[in-house]
């Protein structure tokens, strides 16, 4: 084989590698920064945007308490309470929290629409509000629990929630790992017959990447090669590959002439509708209530304003969903860009996309493990 | 080959995403609990510091949260009623090194304190509705130093500590030449009062930037 094609392939591989490494660094850095508790023997820096963010949150949190006081005697304070709850929710979700990390990684790993990303964020936030309200209602109103008992309950729920995140991540990793393997097979399988043909003629191999500038001089040969490849691929990997019917397939079909050799997509594994698939992520993220919401609810109860507390909790959740939804949209945007990138590139591009999904799936699991082992900071409930 | 602009756009989106998700994560949670503190430094006759006696007063929201499920007698929470809660607090505080860190002549003491003395207790003020935790933290070995520095803070910033406005530190039985100085960080998040019904009016003006939130007590005995 000629040095030229070798070099071209090498070059392509290096470029893919560089982009993949970049992605990995960015996502890993993101995950790592979440591990705020690491070496945390110093108070956090309170300057710049973080200090500002903390200041806003602290202020709105205090304002919530103040408005709850005020609402006791002044009906118009309710409006202020709802407004502050919304803003607090928006700011609070911008702080540390596993919700954003899990949801955005989840969206990066999956083929999701913008609308589903938003829905996922709102559903998780709504569930979070409901958990907080149910816990406080049962603990304080029904069984007269102490703060310690409630803290323990929240800790148990937290453990379950983190374990669920690990499960969601593990399942994604399994699915995406298989897709990645099948993409890898494709790249390899394509390289092999191409190699064989290159011995006949260099021109054919150049076309294996489907680039237009090569098309004109080797069309007929190329088709033949791809046809062989598709057959080989099928006979060799039938046990792994299934057929799927999403738009991804159609796009790939038009670009990848060698046909139906795809790994199963999560849609297939989750069954029709696909809502069950999102549900696991919603529950995993939304199960653990906000410490702040619980403290505020108990405080509202002590002021005889439990209904105001409940309304405030839901509005807070709405604010949280706005922030998480914004971040989720970005994740969906990034993913669709990644998809467009990979659709244009055949072979290695697809491999890169699948590799990226594996990393994102791994991140979901990593965040779960970090949370469960207490390595990653999560909100406390005081010191009980 | 890869079309560079789209790759750039993709990486940029990803970087923004990572930033949004992660960087605020580094900023820790905002404080949920506010504490004002009085601290006494207890001296032995030989002039060494033997213990710190803390009195930490919690804000009204947290006080209400902490006392949930407890029943009042004569309009207040009796000391016996609060004692189990105090025990839980003291036991759990061990995991956080009692939020109290000591430096001798500029060097950080590791594992400086032993268990709090058994006379810890919680006090509930029915007028202000605020809880105060009293406990004494003995040094493992009494400290004799030219400069002793005590820092009180929560590294995870769940609790925001501030020194009381009046007499935050008292030296008990200290040699005459010993002097205390306190360094209060300009903590803009700290409410002007722990009663949020009164704080609302005043704390808005306090929003802005702050510095590190460690409260430093320095005692120099030349």
Describe the 3D structure.
- The complex is a heterodimer of chains A (384) and B (222).
- Chain A contains 14 helices and no strands.
- Chain A is mainly alpha-helical.
- In chain A, α1 (3-33) packs parallel to α14 (348-372), α2 (48-73) runs antiparallel to α3 and α12 runs antiparallel to α13.
- The radius of gyration of chain A is 26 Å and the shape is elongated.
- Chain B is of the alpha+beta class and 222 residues long.
- Chain B has a single domain (29-220), classed as Distorted Sandwich (Acetylcholine Binding Protein, Chain: A).
- Chain B has four helices and eleven strands; from the N terminus they run αββααββββββββαβ.
- In chain B, strands 1, 2, 5, 6, 8 and 9 form a six-stranded mixed sheet that branches.
- The model of chain B is unreliable at 200-211 (pLDDT under 50).
- The chains are: A mainly alpha (384), B alpha+beta (222).
- At the A-B interface, α1, α2, α4, α6 and α12 of A face α1, α2, α3 and α4 of B.
List the main descriptive attributes of the protein structure presented here.
heterodimer; A: 384 residues; mainly alpha; B: 222 residues; alpha+beta; Acetylcholine Binding Protein, Chain: A; six-stranded mixed sheet; 4 helices; 11 strands
């Amino acid at each position: 084989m000629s040095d030229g094609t070798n070099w071209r392939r090498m070059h392509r591989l290096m470029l893919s590698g560089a982009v993949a490494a970049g992605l990995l660094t960015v996502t890993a850095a993101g995950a790592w920064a979440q591990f705020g508790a690491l070496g945390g023997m110093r108070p956090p820096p309170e300057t710049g945007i973080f200090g500002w963010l903390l200041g806003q949150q602290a202020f709105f949190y205090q304002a919530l308490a103040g408005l709850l006081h005020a609402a006791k005697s002044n009906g118009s304070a309710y409006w202020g309470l709802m407004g502050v709850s919304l803003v607090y929710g928006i700011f609070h979700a911008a702080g540390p929290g596993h919700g954003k990390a899990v949801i955005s990684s989840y969206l990066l790993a999956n083929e999701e629409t913008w609308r589903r990303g938003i829905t996922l964020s709102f559903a998780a936030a709504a569930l979070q509000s409901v958990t907080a309200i149910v816990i406080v209602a049962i603990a304080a109103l029904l069984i007269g629990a102490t703060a310690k008992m409630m803290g323990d309950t929240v800790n148990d729920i937290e453990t379950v929630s983190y374990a669920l995140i690990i499960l969601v991540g593990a399942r994604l990793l399994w699915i995406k790992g298989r897709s990645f393997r099948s993409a890898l097979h494709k790249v390899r399988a394509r390289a092999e017959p191409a190699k064989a043909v290159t011995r006949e003629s260099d021109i054919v191999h150049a076309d294996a990447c489907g680039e237009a500038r090569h098309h004109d001089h080797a069309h007929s040969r190329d088709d033949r090669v791809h046809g062989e490849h598709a057959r080989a691929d099928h006979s060799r990997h039938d046990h792994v590959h299934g057929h799927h019917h999403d738009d991804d397939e159609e796009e790939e079909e038009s670009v990848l002439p060698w046909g139906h050799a795809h790994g199963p997509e999560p849609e297939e594994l989750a069954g029709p509708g696909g809502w069950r698939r999102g549900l696991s992520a919603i529950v995993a993220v939304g199960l653990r209530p906000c410490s702040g919401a619980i403290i505020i609810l108990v405080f509202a109860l002590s002021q005889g304003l439990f209904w105001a507390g409940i309304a405030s909790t839901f509005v807070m959740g709405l604010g949280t969903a706005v922030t998480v939804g914004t971040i989720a949209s970005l994740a969906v945007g990034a993913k669709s860009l990644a998809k467009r990138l990979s659709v244009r590139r055949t072979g290695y591009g697809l491999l890169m996309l699948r590799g990226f999904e594996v990393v994102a799936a791994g991140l979901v699991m990593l965040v779960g493990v970090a949370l469960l082992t207490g390595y990653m900071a999560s909100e406390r409930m005081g010191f009980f | 080959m890869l079309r560079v602009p789209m790759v750039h756009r993709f990486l940029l989106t990803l970087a923004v995403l990572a930033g949004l998700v992660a960087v605020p994560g580094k900023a820790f949670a905002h404080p949920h609990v506010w504490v004002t503190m009085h601290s006494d430094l207890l001296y032995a006759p030989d002039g060494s510091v033997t213990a710190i006696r803390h009195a930490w007063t919690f804000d009204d929201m947290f006080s209400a949260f902490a006392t949930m499920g407890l029943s009042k007698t004569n309009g207040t929470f009796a000391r016996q009623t609060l004692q189990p809660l105090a025990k839980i607090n003291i036991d759990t505080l061990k995991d956080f090194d009692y939020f109290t860190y000591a430096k001798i002549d500029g060097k950080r003491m590791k594992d400086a304190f032993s268990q709090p003395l058994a006379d810890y207790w919680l006090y509930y003020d029915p007028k202000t509705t605020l809880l105060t935790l009293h406990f004494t933290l003995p040094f493992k070995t009494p400290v004799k130093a030219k400069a002793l520095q005590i820092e009180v803070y929560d590294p995870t910033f769940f609790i925001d500590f501030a020194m009381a406005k009046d007499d935050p530190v008292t030296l008990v039985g200290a040699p005459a030449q010993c002097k205390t100085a306190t360094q209060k960080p300009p903590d803009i998040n700290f409410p002007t009062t722990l009663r949020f019904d009164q704080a609302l009016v005043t704390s808005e003006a306090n929003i802005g930037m702050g510095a590190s939130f460690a409260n430093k007590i320095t005692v120099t005995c030349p």
